[in-house]
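A common beginner's mistake is to predict each chain separately and then try to dock the pieces by hand. The better habit, illustrated here, is to supply every component at once so that their relative placement is modeled jointly.
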Amino acid sequence: MAALNIKQGSSSHSAYDLRDFHSEVESSHTLAVIVDNEAGVLARVIGLFSGRGYNIDSLTVAEIDHKGHRSRITIVTRGTMAVIDQIKAQLGRIVPVHEVIDLTIESQPVERELALFKVAGTGDKRIEALRLAEIFRANVVDSTLESFVFEMTGTSEKIDAFAELMRPLGLIDVARTGVAALPRGL
Amino acid sequence: MSRQMTGAKMVVQALKDHGVDTIFGYPGGAVLPIYDEIFQQNDVKHILVRHEQAAVHMAEGYARSTGKPGCVLVTSGPGATNAVTGLTDALLDSIPLVVFSGQVPTFMIGTDGFQEADTIGITRPCTKHNWLVKDTEKLAETIHQAFHVATTGRPGPVLIDLPKDVQFATGTYTEPKTARVDHYQPRVKASIEQINDLVALIEKAERPIFYTGGGVINSGPGASQLLRELVDATGFPITSTLMGLGAYPASGKNWLGMLGMHGLYEANLAMHGCDLMINLGARFDDRITGRISDFSPDSFKVHVDIDASSINKVITVNLPIVGDVGHVLEDVLKVWKARGRKVNKEGLAKWWKQIAEWQAVNCLAYEQKGKSIKPQYALQRLEALTKGMDRYITTEVGQHQMWAAQFLGFEAPNRWMTSGGLGTMGYGFPASIGVQMAHPDALVINVAGEASWLMNMQEMGTATQFRAPVKQFILNNERLGMVRQWQELLHGERYSHSWSESLPDFVKLAESFGWKGIRCENPDDLDEAIKEMLAYDGPVLFDCLVEKHENCFPMIPSGKPHNEMLLAADAEAFKEGATLV
Ligand SMILES: Cc1cc2nc3c(=O)[nH]c(=O)nc-3n(C[C@H](O)[C@H](O)[C@H](O)COP(=O)(O)OP(=O)(O)OC[C@H]3O[C@@H](n4cnc5c(N)ncnc54)[C@H](O)[C@@H]3O)c2cc1C
Ligand SMILES: Cc1ncc(C[n+]2csc(CCOP(=O)(O)OP(=O)(O)O)c2C)c(N)n1
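With all components supplied together, the output reads:
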């Protein structure tokens, strides 16, 4: 429509402008979903992801406002821009969902995970594990003569890296909370 | 004002307070307290169905033909699971329903109690929202919220699961107006910038088209009125999906007919060739778009939808507008008039000339020759003989459904009830009963295929019992016609299980339920037979024996673009091509 002089794929006043929908590039997005803490709400959110074939890389949930019965679900998901927008719109229409915030779009969010690592070993390996833990600022929260449990908070990448280093040193178990995230600044 | 009463009484009280006059249901152990309350009052009429799936379809017919939510009551376990197809159907077609299901007592939940099913889990993906009420104190508030959610924003079915002890216990009943509904309030108005953008497009477009859908019907009769005003004032052509038929009158001068897989040639080519597409409350269903990459390649696309998730789901649009069709149309009309009612007259004249050429192809042409009745002819005669009557049409699913959409004209919204999204065979008959319950004096006809019709034929008893004079117009080709057509065109004419064997004698069947049965197989007798059906003051089963191998055209084979539509004349050549693959 030449006469109209409006660029394909954009609209000057929409909430959807500026982004390239046709892009096939997948990116990771961290979404904060504020929900009524009522029975089944997590099942609804998870059911949406499985039912429509979206990815979940990480999911955490806990009540954040006891009086108001609000919970915050933090989801790390992947997809093209079009898919991410669909996920947000689909989440937004779940009745007990109050707000869906795309932290990745709005800012570079602060993202942290807590992880526990059980590492078993003696001798040099044990010493090396302890040394690396110090470098990574992991705390020892349990120890026996043959094992440690390290506690660490950090980005998912940092936790992955630590796990990789611990593997040859006797890593036998890992527990991770998944990502909690907040936007930076005000 | 709040009052103490049992949970069971609250259900009935809330129905009254929400103006519900009819509920479709079937009793069982887990809902007996509610049935006891129904027994002791006369405000809410209960229609006893013969199968819970049918209760939900009846409620859908009731809802679609009135604009009010349909209500259903079923027992726990099998009662609730039987309702699942109906719920899914209503979800896909955006039909507001409030369904009550019984549940085992709260203290038995999770023990595999008698007739226990995880109804909330099972119906979570097929309802807009659902609630398990564990405390009678919360029941009234929950029911009020349920009505709000079902009817607000994009309408849909909701379900309330009611453990039996919650029905027996006493609690406080609160009135609907005190219910908290603030947090679920979808946006209905568009921004003024969006309206201005749309008006600017309307002023300049050379080859515009309105593509309207079920959302216009959902928005209410006011939206249809505004649509007519805008279409007629701008002179733009308009097409509609299966779900939106009647929003703009079929007799209107700008009407191009239905679009999509079995839509009209002119409608599909106009969609393909337009430069401005204004989608009002339609969702770019795959029956519409064909191959996505070739869908209307050169157009600027505007999409007005109340559900943000419908926008950019399938087709990326240029101007997305989240809002209610009625509100948006009102604002567009206001601004467009204020700016001087401009359109691109020259462009439009050329566009209509082009459209007239497409219309001249006469894509619905068929020949009524020989001794057997063509299904298209049967519908044309039905149309002619019911013209001007206070008429409601429901359909089953298959070829007959598409022919009904092509050959029957709808002049008003809420007159056409069909299962579009889920395509549920067995929908039409119960839906027709639901419509008739809402409009006791109207003419309600279900255009059916024999195979679909058999899927809920048990409801004959319901129609007899509740004196619903529904007309079942069966286009009997003794085939699962739509399946047969695909097998002919796409599966090398291997007709695997696509015929209707061991059919009943429909006339005798009708009589056994106290209905009138009519059989017609000769085109010359058709008019008289239809008149006999229309004149009969009671339910009629009309067995119209039609040509067995008629195919429904036009047809856009799945995955093909609009401009590769098959017309009847192309079918043979296509078949040869298809069998080669
Ligand atoms: C055998 C068979 C063949 C079919 N062939 C065709 C065919 O050829 N052509 C055809 O058109 N269909 C066909 N269908 C139907 C098809 O499958 C879809 O059901 C139909 O096209 C969807 O219609 P719609 O886009 O109007 O959306 P609907 O399902 O009616 O959805 C309505 C849309 O409007 C929105 N909405 C709701 N309320 C409002 C409001 N107040 N304001 C704004 N927006 C609102 C909703 O969010 C939704 O996006 C066929 C079905 C069957 C079973
Ligand atoms: C419950 C259900 N099962 C299967 C189908 C697949 N299906 C679509 S159309 C059709 C044949 C319908 O036959 P009939 O009702 O006789 O109508 P006709 O196509 O012959 O007009 C079938 C089996 C469906 N839509 N619904």
